[in-house]
Design goal:
Elements: E1 3-9, H1 13-24, E2 29-35, H2 38-47, E3 52-55, H3 64-73, E4 80-84, H4 89-98, E5 102-105, H5 112-121, H6 123-145, E6 153-158, E7 163-166, H7 168-173, H8 186-191, H9 198-209, E8 216-223, E9 229-240, E10 247-256, H10 258-272, H11 282-298, E11 305-311, H12 314-321, H13 323-340, E12 346-351, E13 354-359, H14 365-379, E14 383-385, E15 388-390, E16 394-400, H15 408-425, E17 430-432, H16 435-457, E18 460-469, E19 475-485, E20 491-492, H17 494-504, H18 507-528, E21 535-539, H19 550-561, E22 568-573, H20 574-579, H21 581-593, E23 597-603, H22 609-613, E24 620-623, H23 625-629, H24 635-650, E25 654-657, H25 663-671, E26 676-677, H26 688-700
Parallel strand pairs: 1-2, 1-3, 3-4, 4-5, 16-17, 19-21, 21-22, 22-23, 23-24, 24-25, 25-26
Antiparallel strand pairs: 6-7, 6-10, 8-9, 9-10, 11-13, 11-16, 12-13, 14-15, 18-19, 18-26, 19-20
């Protein structure tokens, strides 16, 4: 991630730090300054170049509204994002129309990096908008300066005899010749105006002729001779008879402002739509959802739903094929979503691979489920781009208005929470939000804080489970399994923190610490047991392979421990290989070149195992424990294990059987000529000191 210079408008240093931490959490290098007064903000804006402005909405002596006004004075082509605790619907809509790029609730700061990344990617678009707006302002000024020039039409209304003179230029702008529209009555002029705007024109004319306004000015549409409507700016001033105080003459100009109006409409469209797909953006979606929630409060029988969805493996697609292919997939996905929506529904893109759908006026939750299933079927169809076939797929979270929402952002937040639940569960393609998920989200936030603190305190420790040679019965290696031992002595199950750590990207730091400690332990055992040649295997998460410096991390850990790389083993699951095959295979080859052995864990549980196995540079297969545990009762499992052993040996690979829990299983594996065994029958995972004792007792018989 690049370095970012962030100007934070907030009266609380703590809140500013939370904003910064949310960005650093995603890998940004942050330089920031905090301001909380108008004077300080002007000074900082003009003295330094910033990449983004983050502003609180309401402060004791300042506000986001004032901050936005100061920001807009300088026409800075950077994002202005409001980060706030709460904000009313009307205020939010007003701020978006005034120029705020997006809102992030302080209770949902995990959205901040995504919003910032999206807005930075669209900075060129914003810069273009600023240039367009500047050109538009310049154009308006030219029109004002040239009001009496030859390019404007002139008109002169003799009120006493009710005839209007129209100049040749006035007529030409509406497609008429000089001979047409000669001294027409005022009613004929008004007949050319758009019917919807005639009442306002009459009211403004009367107001000015009564002396209640200094001049007459109106923007309105007029019918061109070809039948099309043109936007016009009509200006004029009346002459008043001093004796009767009645207007007797009025003259002015006509300016064609059609192009300016089109530019304004385009700017408004751009402010409310996604530039890549043309779908509604978050601001417009939130407006529509606000209307729907208002309807639900007036009509207890009305029900709507919000669907939040993320594409699966989109990051891998971008990394593998580039952003050009990624953008094509986003466009195709947008078209597919738009094709399945019903009348009254709204489809939006929030940024990146985040989409949302507002289902209007549904009967019950089953309607939302049925629509979601149909939509997912459409989205999952293969996409062919530049010779590649991609299967995007999606995970969806659903929130229903029956939960009594009053603020659109709350409903969007809960749909997003349900979507993340669907992603973390890995089973269902969609989840419907319930209140229990809110509690789960809060617990996850607390767990995140504790994980970060535990990383700083080095509370994550490797526990070592022995792997024994089935021929000799001696310990040949250990698998390093991460355990979280809190300062209180409490052990936290990996099932509780690993999924969250992977979602947050913190698994990379945990994995790095495990790697360093495992290498240090290898060094210790080499000194204590020089004749044993003990190896330690370390698990690598799929997230760790997203790090371009993973090989360098392993090299540093080996060098710092002063060990031979052949005593280090790296375990991966076959499902990881399916994510980004070519890139991961290349990385594994580099490990093999260093003498590091590669273990394929959980073999037999993935897909396309046999057809892909020959491509991957593995040294060892680890048979999944689910097959081993069923060997005594299930003939099929017994044959699967025997087949994997034979397959591994035929490919020149060693085989380890996991999950060995009984002597019977141990004996059966030995009879199959399986090389190694691991499981509770041999020993549970244990701290390093206990593992040292185990080696002494098992291998040395002391």
């Amino acid at each position: 991630m690049p370095a970012l210079r962030v100007l934070v408008v907030d009266d609380s240093e703590d809140d500013a730090l939370l904003d910064v931490l949310a960005l650093r959490r995603q890998g940004y290098e942050i330089e920031y300054e905090r301001v909380d007064t108008a004077e300080d903000m002007r000074q900082r804006l003009n003295k330094a170049q910033w990449d983004v402005v983050l502003s609180d909405f309401s402060m004791p002596n300042f506000s986001a509204i004032e901050a936005l006004q100061i920001f807009q004075e300088g026409s800075f082509p950077i994002p202005f994002i409001v980060v706030t605790g709460t904000i009313g619907e009307e205020s939010a809509v007003a701020m978006m129309k005034a120029g705020v790029n997006d809102f992030v609730l302080k209770t949902h700061l995990k959205r901040l990096p995504t919003v910032v990344e999206r807005e930075l990617r669209e900075s060129d678009t914003r810069a273009a908008k600023f240039r367009a707006e500047a050109a538009l302002r310049e154009s308006q000024e030219r029109y004002e300066l040239a009001i009496t020039g030859a390019n404007d039409g002139l008109w002169d209304w003799n009120i006493r005899d009710n005839t209007i003179y129209l100049s040749p230029r006035w007529k030409a702008m509406l497609g008429y010749t000089e001979d047409e529209l000669q001294n027409i009555p005022s009613e004929s002029w008004l007949a050319l105006a758009h019917p919807d705007e005639v009442p306002l024109l009459r009211a403004k004319l009367v107001q000015h002729m009564k002396g209640e306004s200094p001049h007459f000015e109106a923007e309105h549409r007029m019918c061109h001779k070809d039948g099309n409507w043109r936007w016009m700016l009509t200006r004029g001033i009346a002459l008043i008879d001093p004796e009767t105080q009645q207007a007797y003459r009025m003259a002015g100009s006509l300016t064609d402002i059609t192009e300016r109006k089109r530019a304004e409409e385009q700017l408004l469209y751009d402010a409310l739509h996604d530039g890549l797909t043309g779908l509604a953006n978050r601001a417009l979606f939130t407006d529509f959802l606000g209307f729907s929630l208002g309807h639900s409060q007036r009509d207890p029988n009305y029900l709507c739903a919000v669907l939040c969805l993320n594409l699966e493996r989109f990051r891998y697609i971008n990394d593998s094929f580039g952003h050009g292919i990624g953008d094509q997939i986003l466009k195709i996905t947008a078209e597919r979503l738009a094709s399945v929506r019903r009348g009254g529904d709204v489809v939006a893109r929030f940024g990146g691979d985040e989409f949302a759908i507002l289902l209007d006026d549904i009967d019950d939750a089953n309607d939302a489920k049925l629509f979601t299933e149909q939509m997912l079927t459409e989205v999952a169809k293969p996409i062919h781009v530049e010779g590649h076939e991609v299967y995007p797929g999606a995970r969806v979270g659903i929130a229903l208005s029956s939960s009594g929402y009053t603020h659109p952002e709350e409903m969007i937040r809960d749909a997003d929470t349900a979507m993340h639940r669907a992603k973390s569960q890995g089973r269902a393609k969609y989840e419907i939000f319930d209140r229990a998920m809110h509690g789960t989200m809060l617990r996850a936030l607390k767990m995140e804080q504790e994980i970060r603190r535990a990383l700083d305190s080095h509370e994550f420790l490797p526990f070592y489970q022995p792997i024994v040679d089935l021929c000799s019965g001696k310990v040949a290696a250990f698998e390093a399994l991460v355990r979280w031992k809190k300062a209180t002595g409490e052990l936290v199950s990996p099932a509780e923190f690993i999924p969250l750590a992977e979602e947050l990207g913190l698994i990379n730091q945990i994995g790095q610490q495990m790697l360093q400690m495992a290498c240090a332990q290898i060094s210790t055992w080499q000194k204590d047991f020089p004749a044993e040649a003990l190896q330690i295997s370390v698990n690598l998460s799929g997230k760790q392979f997203n790090q371009p410096d993973l090989v360098d991390q392993v090299d540093r850990a080996v060098a710092e421990a002063g060990i031979d790389a052949q005593f280090l083993e790296l375990e991966i699951t076959e499902s990881i290989l399916m994510e980004n095959t070519d890139a991961i295979v290349e990385m594994l080859q580099r490990f093999r070149e260093r003498g590091i052995r590669i273990l394929m864990d959980d073999f037999g549980t993935g897909y396309s195992s046999l057809s892909y196995l020959h491509r991957f540079p593995s040294n060892v297969l680890k048979i999944d424990g689910s097959f081993v545990r069923r060997m005594g009762d299930d003939t099929g499992s017994h044959e699967i294990v025997r087949t994997i052993v034979l397959l591994g040996h035929n490919l020149g690979m060693k085989v380890i059987a996991e999950g060995v829990e009984t002597f019977e299983q141990y004996s059966m594996l030995k009879s199959m000529d399986c090389d190694y065994a691991q499981g509770y029958h041999i020993a549970k995972p244990m701290p390093a000191d206990q593992a040292t004792t185990f080696i002494t007792q098992r291998n040395l018989g002391l």
